Amino acid sequence: MSEKESVCVTGGSGFIGSWLVRLLLGRGYTVHATVKNLASNWILILLELEREFGDRAVLWAEDEGETKHLRAMEGAEASRLRLFQIDLLDPASIHAAIRGAVGVFHLASPCIVDRVHDPERELLDPAVKGTLNVLRAAKESGVKRVVVTSSISAIVPSPSWPADVVKDENCWTDVDYCKQNEIWYPASKTLAEKAAWEFAKENGLDVVVVNPGTVMGPVIPPSINASMAMLFRLLEGCSEEYANFYMGSVHVKDVALAHILVYENTSASGRHLCVESIAHWSDFASKVAELYPEYKVPRFPKDTQPGLLRAQYPSKKLIELGMEFHSMEQIIKDAVESLESKDFIS
Ligand SMILES: NC(=O)c1ccc[n+]([C@@H]2O[C@H](COP(=O)([O-])OP(=O)(O)OC[C@H]3O[C@@H](n4cnc5c(N)ncnc54)[C@H](OP(=O)(O)O)[C@@H]3O)[C@@H](O)[C@H]2O)c1
């Protein structure tokens, strides 16, 4: 394996970020991975343990940091993994993480889908201003290409899209509809992606975008993220239909690989829908119920996403770049096995 250039992954300790860091290290890249709290978790644990156990706390605390799973990755040794603490609203912290990197993968963004009290502060500012801060730092550092992680949430909800046309990269979430209905996560992803395209155009920065569906699969970090929590709740019997959030699922490893494909293929441009298929939450739930009858998965009406046309291979742009998507069945099996083996669910 030849040693490659340095790249920066914002949100490197998250669900998708951890897989991306693992694949990049495996390909020989040097990775600058950013986390929100490099030290504070350690300090909190350290203080608690120190109170209880005295000196031994120092050793134990180092083992409990949110970066332990990154440090344990093959290739993390020999300075090929560098960790940086950033705050998306602090340009200086972002500059420090990006300096020296040739490419940037911008994943960090708040993933809060319910109980939003202050949308501006909790979601919109970090998503939009954070993206602009990352792009500005990339431009100033002479970065060659930036991959921005957007979402299907920048594609749906889109109520005025023609009912007989399959949704694709030309479809955009209706931000006014989101604001009127207080659906803040899609608003944040859409405004952030639009800001990225505007910045790229005005500043001549090479930006390419991946729009993943609902991401599931093996979990590397010590806790589960919002999309794996959807599966967790389904297995627990929750009957929420996610009418404005769901459009299909995708394996977490495929999402990480899609980021690398669009980074490495200079011909890749624009948005890239990244889903195994366009499906309704009801399709996903009934497949989970079929595979895992021992869980109390609820029954849903046939169409949980009113007006969403199903499609077998909608991610044509990524398939043309060589992507082979895991099936929905494999996504579910890998995700449930991970939840069970890590004792998130039993
Ligand atoms: N999961 C999905 O189904 C899905 C689908 C489409 C798109 N996406 C997008 O994929 C990206 C990664 O999501 P994920 O699923 O991997 O979720 P995740 O595990 O919650 O990762 C989000 C990451 O963003 C970081 N972050 C959030 N706010 C930050 C802030 N103010 N400053 C610095 N870092 C901040 C978090 O850092 P810490 O871990 O250090 O807190 C975390 O690493 C996000 O942009 C998300 O919108 C996810």
Automatic annotation (TrEMBL):
GO terms for molecular function: oxidoreductase activity, acting on the CH-OH group of donors, NAD or NADP as acceptor. SUPFAM superfamilies: NAD(P)-binding Rossmann-fold domains. Residues 7-270 form the NAD-dependent epimerase/dehydratase domain. The keyword Oxidoreductase applies. Keywords: Oxidoreductase. It comes from the Eukaryota. InterPro entries: Epimerase_deHydtase (IPR001509), NAD(P)-bd_dom_sf (IPR036291), NAD(P)_dehydrat-like (IPR050425). This is Phenylacetaldehyde reductase isoform X1. It comes from Phoenix dactylifera.
